Amino acid sequence: MSHGRRIALRKPAGRGPGRLTGGPAAWPRPACVCPGTLAALGVALLVLCGTAPAQPVTSLHLVAWDTGVAGQRELLAELVRQFQRQNPGIIICTEWQPSGNPEEWLRRWTSSYREHAPDLVVINDLWLVGHAADALPLPVDMQQDLGRRLPASVAARGGDRLRGVPWVVATEALYYRSDLMERAGLTPPTTPDELADCAERLADPPGVYGFGLPGAGAGGEDLLHVLATAAGGITADEAGAIAPAQPAFERALSLLVDMDSRGALQPEVLTWSEIELAGLFVQGRLAMMVSRPWLDTMLQQTEATRRAELGRAEAAGEDGADRAAALRAAKIEWGIAPLPVASGGAGHLAVDWLAALASTDAPEQSLKVLRFLAAEDRQRTLAMMGGVPATRALAAELRGTDAWRAHLAGLDGALGLPAGQWPLLRAQLADALSYAISGRRTPAEALEAAAEIQP
What we know:
By secondary structure, the chain is an alpha/beta fold. It contains 19 helices and nine strands.
């Protein structure tokens, strides 16, 4: 593959390594060709390619989920290039799939679609529990190494035996429009009461809303769980079940209902998604919201685009004056603070792992990819895809940066969603949120009724 020519290999996923075996005899013959032509072609190929047979090349299929974070494809492409320069015998075919229903794809790839399964796939911590047998365990030395390097909270999301390397590690933080906060003479809230007071004072509808709450079924139940976790923690009963009627959930739901009653939330609160709230935040029409690091990445990209457009408008002189004025007014000014409901601030943790499926016919090569991505410098790059640094050393090194300071606060003690229980608990919390925000029931009544929902 000299002279910059690239030979693309394609194999049915999960059907073993694709191989190039050098020499014209191994290539498909034309349907009709005379012996003289074939001999001449063979001589030409030997001159071009040399007489030594090429080494076998393994083609791996890696599937990641497109979350819309700006730059994630470019970051992964660079990591793949680095790996392939160090490992010329392995080619990685990267496929970005829509993030709409990845768990359904994983179920298919581990059952009836096994012949089409990728070698490597991103699996979040909730699915990993049910698919532990479908993923290759890491070698003992890798498990021991990662066990030393990962915070206990992150390692715990990988189960008793690690079967992947961190892909995206995320915690929630409070995002606020610093320009609105400064104009109102306020500082970022540090307690639940301050959050409610701050949201009320910042609200000036319909121009500005104080705090963004995603609707039930659109992320509101996730936020309710985050606030309950951070506001005092949640515990399971003797059977390991988490009941939505626990005091932590009532406190969190009461906080949201209180802000709604004080006019601090956006209108039609039960219908807005987190993406729609992010759009309001960009416009300066939403003062505060809770989100993961992907929001900071999106804001930075949006602000960079604004500055570039402003430069072009200014270069146009008088013709671009009106556009330049509008772009100056659209400047995005924001800050990030720990969740204002607990000491430390990080109440929730989510971990996506890159794992090798047990159905792969190239386990050695797949594990080599995982070993490559487990290195500190590669984990630093992966953190740029909408997460936080996943290792103790990187977290300590980057704890002071603006983008990650609030997200890393309390990382060591952060808790994740209850694996195996979340589908039911999510439905219960969505139901409770709908009843309480609509005013049909008190937070306590709504949670008690929601607890009656069964699988």
